[in-house]
Design goal:
- There is one protein chain.
- The chain is α+β, with helices and mostly antiparallel strands and 417 residues long.
- The chain folds into four domains: 95 residues, conserved putative lor/sdh protein from methanococcus maripaludis s2 fold (Beta Barrel); 89 residues, Efflux pump adaptor protein, beta barrel domain (Elongation Factor Tu (Ef-tu), domain 3, Beta Barrel); 61 residues, OB fold (Dihydrolipoamide Acetyltransferase, E2P) (Beta Barrel), CATH 2.40.50; 123 residues.
- 35% of the residues lie in helices and 33% in strands.
- The chain has four helices and 24 strands.
- The strands form five sheets. It has a six-stranded mixed β-sheet, with no helix packed on it. A six-stranded antiparallel beta barrel has the order 4-13-16-15-14-17.
- A hairpin with a 2-residue loop joins strand 14 and strand 15.
- Helix 2 packs antiparallel against helix 3.
Length: 417
């Protein structure tokens, strides 16, 4: 007898279909809502530079290379042009003020000097002769007055005698009138001579003064000419060390040409440093700097700013605020730390190649598990040669990748392997 077979509700085929459908649905949901959508890149952890974010004292400064110069330098230039005839010292010599360094020869100038000297001596002799003539004229006038006074005595005595004889009727009236006329004439001549003497004295004083002034001017000109001739001997303007001096016999030097300089070593040293023109608005007089020499840190400050910008930089002079380092030499190059702020507490991260790719706008943060790193936006502030100041996005204790990001392609997540 046949038996009715009941149809199974859960066949294997049906169960498998449901299972596969459910699994597909879960996969779709996962892909839509739970899958990690971040772009990934697998990297070798041992090839990365990882640093800790920390809280520490931070000071903004920039490194600049500075050259050592004497604090006081006197330049030696050729006052008169000429050909180098003799060199008395070598570069680096220690000189006293007035020591002869070299001698120039200028035949044209020497001939002009001799010609001018001759003409000036002739002019001085003429002026002195004029002065002698003025004095002679004064003596001539005095002699004339003396003679007139003697003549007056004579005619006065004659007049008085004839007047008495005339009163006694012993001589004629004509003889008396002649005697009186001679007396009056002689007195008028004396009066005129005295007036001329006064005029001559005043004129002589003025002319003598002018002659003396002219002679003094000419003598000063002679002194100046001689000084110009002596300028062919180049001498040390002060005590110090001769430097930048490279002169050979036979060279021709023009007036005003730089010949060398005297470094006044006893005055100490200064440092001259070029600074990028981006900092021209933030550099100021008195700004502090420091550098290390022979294991000791020395402090300096800016004493002069040269605002002319050349090849993208401007220069500053710095002086020591305390002791100067022993053993430092002119022309030596040292690296300064030019300070822009005082030390203060800040969140900092070590400098690295990441900045070239990110511009300091983001960084990779290493997860606490140490298995991957995630990109995070940050904001950096000031910087120095070792650290960046972190303004936003990082906390002390976190770890970040600071090596170059050039090969990461800006992925959101780096997975370590």
């Amino acid at each position: 007898m046949d038996r009715i077979i009941e149809k199974k509700k859960w066949t294997l085929k049906k169960v498998l279909a449901i299972v596969f459908s459910a699994a597909f649905l879960v996969l779709i949901v996962y892909l839509l809502f739970f899958r990690d959508k971040q772009s990934k890149l697998y990297v070798n952890k041992d090839q990365l530079a990882i640093a800790d974010v920390k809280r520490d004292r931070f000071q903004e400064f920039i490194p600049v290379d500075a050259v050592v110069y004497p604090k006081t330098t006197i330049y030696i230039d050729a006052v008169q042009g000429g050909t180098v005839e003799r060199v008395f010292v070598e570069d680096g010599a220690i000189l006293d003020k007035g020591d002869t360094i070299l001698k120039l020869v200028n035949a044209d100038m020497e001939l002009r000097y001799m010609d001018q000297e001759t003409r000036m001596y002739d002019a001085i002799n003429n002026l002195q002769n004029s002065k002698v003539n003025l004095e002679r004229n004064q003596f001539v006038r005095q002699l004339e007055i003396v003679n007139l006074e003697a003549e007056i005595d004579k005619v006065n005595l004659d007049f008085k005698r004839k007047k008495q004889l005339y009163n006694e009727k012993l001589i004629s009236e004509q003889e008396f009138e002649d005697a009186r006329r001679d007396y009056n004439l002689t007195m008028k001549q004396l009066e005129i001579s005295l007036q001329l003497q006064r005029l001559d004295s005043v004129s002589m004083i003025n002319q003598t003064k002018q002659i003396n002034n002219s002679i003094n001017r000419m003598q000063n000109n002679l002194t100046l000419l001689n000084k110009n001739l002596q300028n062919l001997f180049i001498k040390a303007p002060a005590n110090g060390k001769l430097s930048s001096f490279s002169i050979e016999i036979g060279e021709t030097k023009s007036a005003g040409e730089h010949l060398g300089q005297i470094d006044m070593m006893k005055d100490g040293f200064k440092l001259r440093a070029p600074i990028d023109e981006r900092y021209i608005s933030t550099v100021h007089l008195g700004q502090e700097a420091e550098f290390d020499f022979a294991g000791i840190t020395y402090q300096l400050e800016i004493m002069k700013i040269y605002t002319d910008v050349t090849n993208g930089s401007f220069q500053v002079d710095l002086q020591f605020t305390g002791d100067e380092p022993r053993g430092i030499k002119r022309g030596q190059t040292v690296q300064l730390r030019l300070q822009f702020s005082s030390p203060r507490e800040a969140t900092i991260v070590k400098r690295g190649g990441f900045f070239q790719e990110t511009g300091g706008n983001w960084i990779y943060i290493v997860d606490a598990t140490g298995e991957f790193a995630i990109k995070r936006s940050i904001r950096l502030g000031r910087q120095n040669t070792n650290y960046y100041e972190v303004l936003e996005g990082l906390e002390p204790g976190e770890r970040v990748i600071i090596s170059s990001y050039e090969s990461f392609g800006g992925k959101d997540k780096l997975v370590f392997r």
